Amino acid sequence: MAVVGVLALQGSFNEHIAALRRLGVKGVEIRKPEQLQSVSSLIIPGGESTTMAKLAEFHNLFPALREFVEMGKPVWGTCAGLIFLANKATGQKTGGQKLVGGLDCTVHRNFFGSQIQSFEADLPVPELASKEGGPETFRGIFIRAPAILEAGPEVQVLADYPVPSNKFLDSDSSTEDKKENAEEGGKVIVAVRQGNILGTAFHPELTADTRWHSYFIKMSNANVGEEASSSSLVPAEVDITSNQQPRSDLPIFQ
User: Fold this and answer.
1) Is 214 annotated as a binding residue?
2) What pLDDT is stored for residue 167 in this prediction?
3) Is 209 helix (H, G, I), strand (E, B) or coil?
4) Which of 15, 193, 201, 236 has an alpha carbon within 20 to 30 A of 88's alpha carbon?
5) Does a structural domain hold residue 214?
6) In which family does this protein belong, per the annotation (predicted)?
7) Type and span of the H or E element at 216
């Protein structure tokens, strides 16, 4: 089975590796360009995107990361990782930040607001459920989360989330983009796939539901010509439809 690399500059890389371990898959920390040569797929975790970009630049990782994507190897970006993979990002800090690119979309960096406006929501995920089974929804954890405002014709939307139209008008994207998005029913895209690139605006690694990780592993196995079967994937015995302890939810975004 292919080894999955997890960019380990900052953010929730340990949580991704733990989720992979629950599926019987080896995840390795990636901090240097040459380490990418030992993995066939890569997860770019959530964290603070500006800090991650500065560290990636310090370690001269951007050329290697871009080459990894251009070679068609599977890459999954969660939250900050999604921003990294976008071809265009708005709402950035003064001076902006470098992007890896490859995903034909425009991402708003902090669309849902600051840290205290983090939330959880049940997202309809028909594609994920059809491929991985389980409930028709996924409990998305959004922490100072981005959102995809525009996606190209080759981008498959895997999940979206309804927001008030005035939320678009509060964002700092262009006036034309604001009007267009506000007229399209007040939804933003929060999960996509384009070829071998997967992106989620939320944090699957912070839940007990490993279906997104399983979905990505199968992308990775298909890329190296392996058949992802029940013998090669060993899911954890986790009941994702119930909780033994009361769940302390973050507020649902309104």
Assistant:
1) no
2) 60
3) coil
4) 15
5) yes
6) Belongs to the glutaminase PdxT/SNO family.
7) helix 211-223
Length of the chain: 254
Domain count along the chain: 1
Q: Spell out the residues 6+ positions from residue 190 whose beta carbon is closer than 8 angstroms to its own.
A: 123, 140, 142, 145, 147, 148, 159, 160, 161, 200, 201, 202
Q: Long-range contacts: 240-246, Cβ < 8 Å, 24+?
A: 240/134, 240/135, 240/207, 240/208, 240/209, 240/211, 241/134, 241/135
Question: In whole angstroms, what is the distance from residue 184 CA to residue 214 CA?
Answer: 32
Summarised one tens digit per residue, pLDDT across range 127-165 is: 999 999 999 999 999 999 999 999 999 999 999 999 876
pTM, rounded to two decimals: 0.82
Please state, in angstroms and rounded to a whole number, the distance separating the CA atoms of residues 71 and 178. 34
Structural domain range at position 204: 3-167+187-227
Q: Residue 252 annotated as binding?
A: no
> CB neighbours (10 Å) of residue 58?
9
Catalytic residue among 16, 120, 132, 203: 203
The 10s digit of each residue's pLDDT in 204-213 is 999 999 999 9
Q: Is 48 annotated as a binding residue?
A: yes
DSSP 8-state secondary structure symbol assigned to residue 149: E
47 annotated ligand-binding residue: yes
Contact between residue 138 and residue 204 where contact means Cβ atoms under 8 Å apart:
yes
CATH number for 79: 3.40.50.880
Q: Is residue 109 part of an annotated ligand binding site?
A: yes
Catalytic residue among 79, 108, 132, 213: 79
- Residue 196: per-residue pLDDT: 95
**How many Å apart are CA 48 and CA 79, to the nearest integer?**
9
Segment 91-100 shows an average pLDDT of 75
Residue 163 lies in a domain: yes
Q: For residue range 106-121, what is the model confidence (pLDDT) as tens digits?
A: 999 889 988 888 999 9
Find the helix or strand (DSSP H, E) in which 166 lies. Answer: helix 165-170
